[in-house]
Design brief:
Helix content: 40-55%
Oligomer: single chain
Order of helices and strands: HHHEEHEHEHEEEHEHEHEEH
Mean pLDDT: 88
Largest sheet: 7 strands, mixed
Low-confidence stretches: none
Strand content: 15-25%
Radius of gyration: 22 Å
Number of strands: 11
Distance between the termini: 58 Å
Structural class: alpha/beta
Number of helices: 10
């Protein structure tokens, strides 16, 4: 019986679904199902009745659930106690962050970090994915907040959250006013992020998958510049939701897309063969909490 198996078991019990539990635990459904099956085999009896729609706890599952929750809670308490006992405030923490994430996420996270550890020494490096991964491999930073694609044989990726992309249009009656499909951008001039950014690559990939015929009038390396050009009425674009939430520009409207899957994964990258320091793990937990708190969700403006 392993801790991650108990976490998966509790997630299935609380969500009533293997698929929803897999989403909650950020693992694939086959992997989660396999671990639940191994747990059942070890205990010698089924924990769930698999129904046509969802699952239901067996008597064994009902007996295990409160004990599993207690074990997980005790494990969290032990971990927190060990963290408090270690002096980590004077250990420098070097973190790499993408420029399309840093201005919007870091103010909330750094504020939390300084509130809980006022003496901690944070060193933030903003750069492109490829350079951040190189810095991570060269031990110049402790971890990196990036998006996909991010691949290196010495780097391990952990998904923290999924973020929607929003359509940003000029705040004018001549432009879309409500949620629309990505296909709609074919009708307008497009301003997009430069492909040197992984977000620019992702946007190009989304459009290529749908065989969109975009009329690109400008590529920008900065989201702030991109939004200014949109506000001037020069075209439409796609921006991450945290940008719209934390740095909306007057003259722009931010619209959700009807297409599923138009989103980016926010991930933390670790060097695979290095230990993860207490302060680094605490920083990532603060990032995870902020991303899942809804603080970066965009609140739409009223229609014209």
């Amino acid at each position: 019986m392993e801790m991650h198996q108990l976490r998966y078991f509790v997630a299935v019990a609380e969500t009533g679904s293997f698929s929803r539990a897999a989403e909650r635990c950020y693992v694939s459904q086959p992997s989660l199902s396999l671990q639940i099956k191994k747990l059942e085999e070890e205990l010698g009896q089924p924990l769930f009745d698999r129904l046509r729609r969802g699952v239901a706890l067996t008597d064994a599952g009902k007996l295990l659930l409160p004990r599993a929750k207690q074990i997980l809670q005790q494990a969290r308490e032990v971990e927190e106690q060990l963290k408090r006992q270690q002096s980590i405030e004077n250990v420098p923490l070097a973190v790499g962050v993408l420029p399309t994430i840093a201005p919007y996420l870091l103010p909330l996270v750094v504020g939390r970090m300084l509130a809980s550890h006022p003496q901690c020494q944070l060193q933030i490096r903003e750069d492109l994915t490829e350079r951040l991964l190189e810095a991570l491999v060269n031990n110049e930073i402790d971890c990196a907040l990036v998006s996909l694609p991010a691949e290196h044989e010495l780097v391990e990726i952990e998904v923290l959250a999924q973020e929607r992309l929003l359509l940003v249009v000029p705040n004018s009656p001549n432009w879309p006013q409500e949620s629309c499909a990505l296909k709609a951008i074919e009708d307008f001039p497009v301003i997009t992020l430069h492909e040197m950014h992984c977000l620019g690559q992702q946007i190009d990939s989304f459009c290529a998958q749908q065989a969109l015929q975009r009329r690109i009038v400008c590529r920008s390396a900065e989201l702030s510049t991109l939004q200014t050009l949109v506000a001037m009425g020069l075209g439409v674009s796609l921006v991450p939701e945290m940008c719209a939430s934390r740095s909306p520009l007057e003259g722009c409207r931010y619209l959700p897309l009807a297409d599923e899957g138009i989103q980016r994964a926010i991930v933390v990258a670790w060097r695979r063969d290095r230990s993860r320091g207490h302060l680094a793990r605490h920083f990532v937990e603060q990032v995870r909490d902020v991303l899942q708190s809804g603080a970066l969700r965009y609140q739409p403006t009223p229609s014209l």
